[in-house]
Write a structure and sequence with these properties.
The protein has 165 residues and is mainly α. It contains eleven helices and no strands.
Length: 165
């Protein structure tokens, strides 16, 4: 019997494997490393957040996962590592297309750019902003379109699967 690759061994769905390939390409990492992160009992949508924050904070993804698994929220971790809304902002052509993130984009609009670091973001906002960036850049689709489509799906893994078909 031949060896089973890491993604298949972990029980990941076809959609998750495709999503993790896109995440690996975005972060210029081997797919095997992303597959390992996918085994850490985090929702798949949070894997890009781990990698984004790890790069910004210059800490290991493992350290962030340990903190996350100990009960820390993405909001807490963003504050701890000084990753403000300015670093997470994804430019939109039409902020009205922000869908569920419309309240966040209203705060961006109403706050001077030099004060964006102080804009409060929920953990869900952080997960959505990172995923919109990753999917938009990976697929070459405008962030506005990604955000519009978030209302039609329950996860970014499912959204990615819809967008590639």
């Amino acid at each position: 019997m031949g060896a089973v690759s890491a993604p298949e061994a972990s029980g990941q769905t076809t959609a998750e494997r495709a999503y993790f390939r896109a995440v690996a390409q975005f972060f210029q990492m081997p797919e095997e490393e992303i597959a390992i992160l996918g085994n850490w009992n985090l929702p798949p949508d949070e894997i890009p957040v781990v990698l984004f924050m790890a790069r910004r904070a210059v800490v290991s993804p493992e350290a962030l996962v340990a903190l996350r698994q100990s009960g820390r929220s993405w909001t807490d971790l963003a504050k701890r590592y000084d990753i403000g809304a300015n670093a997470l902002h994804v430019p939109l052509k039409d902020p009205a297309s922000a869908g569920a993130l419309e309240p966040v984009y209203e705060r961006f609009r109403d706050t001077p750019v030099d004060q964006w670091t102080s804009i409060p973001l929920s953990s869900g906002d952080i997960v959505a902003l990172v995923n919109v960036r990753v999917l938009s850049q990976s697929l070459g689709i405008a962030p506005d379109e990604i955000m519009r489509r978030t209302a039609t799906t329950s996860s970014f893994v499912d959204l990615y699967a819809q967008l590639i078909h």
